[in-house]
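Batch manifest line 263
LIGAND: T3D
JOB: complex structure
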Amino acid sequence: MSNATIERAFEDGLVTVTLNRPDRLNAFNAGMHAALRDVLEDAAGDEAVRCVLLTGAGRGFCAGQDLGDRSVQPGEEPPDLGASIEKNYNPLIRLIAGLEKPVVCAVNGVAAGAGANVAFACDIVLAARSAKFIPSFCRIGLIPDSGGTWHLPRLAGRARAMGMALLGDAVDAETAERWGLIWRCVDDAELLAEALRLGRHLAAQPTAGLALIKQALRASWSNDLGAQLDLEKELQRAAGRTADYREGVRAFLEKRAAVFSGR
Ligand code: T3D
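JOB STATUS: finished
ARTIFACT:
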C-alpha cells in the first residue's frame, strides 16, 4: 500500500513503514497521523506481520508536529494542543509500545520534537551516524510529549533527560548510543541494510515469545521486584505453552535450525 504521506512495504513477515513528507522533514500533519495509525493497527491485527520497521523518506526522520498547522493570528484562539495529543500523539505511542511484535526504528536523519520521542518509544533504534535527536519542544515553549518525559529519564537518566529537555540541544547519534537512548548507530550508507537485516531476523523469531519479553521489560519500569517476579512467572507460563517454545526445544535436541511459526 502507498499513499501520499505513509508508504508501506511487506516482505517475509516484515512490514516497512516510511514517513513520507520529505519536503517537511516528515513532520506530522493530521493525514500522516491517520495513515500511520491505520498501518500500525493493520500490523497489530495481521498474523503475517511479525516485525515492524519504521523509517523516514529523504534527509530527515521526522521533525515532529508540522508547525505550519499551528500558526495563530492575533485575536485568534490558540489550538487545543491537549486535544491534538489525545487524538494523535498518545494513540501513536500506545500503539507502538503495545504492539505485540518488535518495532525497529531506523533514524535516517534529524529527529526533532515528537519525531525523536516516537523513535525512543520503539523497541530497537538504529540511527545513521549523521542523525541527530533534538528535543526542540522547549525552544517553542512546549513540554516533551509523545512519551518523552517518560522514556527520556528511563533511557538516559535524570541528569541527561533534564539537560536535554530544558536546553533542547541536538544530541548526535554516537552520543545517543553512548547514553543508552538508542541501540546502535551505524554508518549512513549501512543504515537501511542493517535495519532490514535486523527486521528480517526478528520476523523469523518466536513472535509470541518476543511479545512477552517486550511486555515484561516495559512492566519492569513501574513494578517492584516482587511484582516483576510474579509477572515473569505468568509470562513464562504463557511462553511455555507456545508452539515456538516446543519447536525451539525440539530443534535444539535434534541439532537443527528451528523454524518458528510466530505462535
Ligand atoms: O501541536 C501539537 O499538536 C502538539 C504536539 C507537538 C509535538 C511537537 O513535535 S512540537 C515540536 C515541533 N518541531 C520542531 O519544533 C522542529 C522544527 N524544525 C526544526 O527545528 C528544524 O527544521 C530541524 C532542526 C528539525 C532541521 O533543521 P534543518 O536546518 O536541517 O532543516 P530546515 O531548513 O529547518 O527544514 C527543512 C524544511 O522543512 C524547511 O522548509 P523549507 O524552508 O525548505 O520550505 C522547514 O520549514 C521544514 N520543516 C522542518 N521542520 C518542520 C518543518 N515544517 C513544518 N513543521 C516542522 N516541524
